[in-house]
Each structure stands twice: as structure tokens, then as C-alpha cells.
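Extended Data, panel c. Modelled sequence:
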Amino acid sequence: MGRVTQAQAEENRRRVVETASRLFREQGTHVSVADLMKASGLTHGGFYKQFASKEALIDEATAHAFDELTRLRNAGLEQRSGQRDAAQQALIDTYLSIEHRDRAADGCPAAALATDIAREPGDREARRVYTEGVGDFAEWLATEDQDGITRLCTMLGALVLARATKGSPLSEEILTTARAALTATG
């Protein structure tokens, strides 16, 4: 088998980061390198040609997940002709939906990665990226009437609880109640 071109190596790295970002949000950062590489369609042996360690990949995948969140927020703002209130409400409605509850792999990194990042040492890049991402998200959610941290905590807490109670009537009630609370105060 021939050597991989630089372009192919970059494509492989991008694929691993995207796959890791999804798997970490869905299953947690404890996913094995072997399983991660298999899900990426690559061999386990190629991992250390691309990354210094699994921790380095966690750092990069966390940044990728928050970049996706930022792109989603910006796209929503553009779709609503820059009307921030309408974009915020649309995001809240989507965030507190059954679809988002059921699709953690494509969902909010703040909710999906919270417990894993909490276990990371304070000097880790993933912790810094997570903290910055949460702060940016809260700032984006702020209105004249309510600070963004309160709104984010309500959304994130509701999503985590709805996922944990999925399959029970309580799960949907949590989403509905949080959405109503944010609409009434936002």
C-alpha cells in the first residue's frame, strides 16, 4: 500500500475529529481509540500519526463541537434577517425539542460533554474551550429582560433531565415546561 498524500492525511484527520465530536457527545469521551477509528473508517494504527494522544483529540473534538454550535446560531440569525429575538426563540424551540433530546450526537456540546469535561484537569485545552463555548453561548442568549446564564442553565438542565428520563411522560413535560418558561420570560 502506498503512502498517504498530505491532502488525504488532512481529510482523514478531519474525519476523525468530526467522528470523535459526534461520538463523544453521544457516548462520552471514554470511547476507545479503536472504536473511534473504526467509526471513522480508518485503522487503529493511524491514530497516532494524526494525534499526539487521545486527550489531544478530545481537545480538538470539543472545539469542533462548539464551532458547530456557533455556526448553527449564526445561520439561525441570518435566516431571520438579523432579528436576534426571533433567532433566539427558534434556537430555544429547537434545543428543547424531542428531536434534539434524541440526537445527542448532533446536539449541544455544553449538555453532552458537561460531566466528561468536569473530570478534566483545569489546565486542559478541552476545559478552556468548553468554558469559553459556554460563556459565548450564554452571552448570545442574553436579552434585555434576562441574562444568558439563566437561560442557558434552564435549557441545558432541561435537556439533560429530559434525556435522563426519556421514555417517560416526564421527559416531554420537562422540555415543554422549560420552553414555556423561557418564552414567558424571554
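The chain has eleven helices and no strands. This feature is highlighted in the accompanying rendering.
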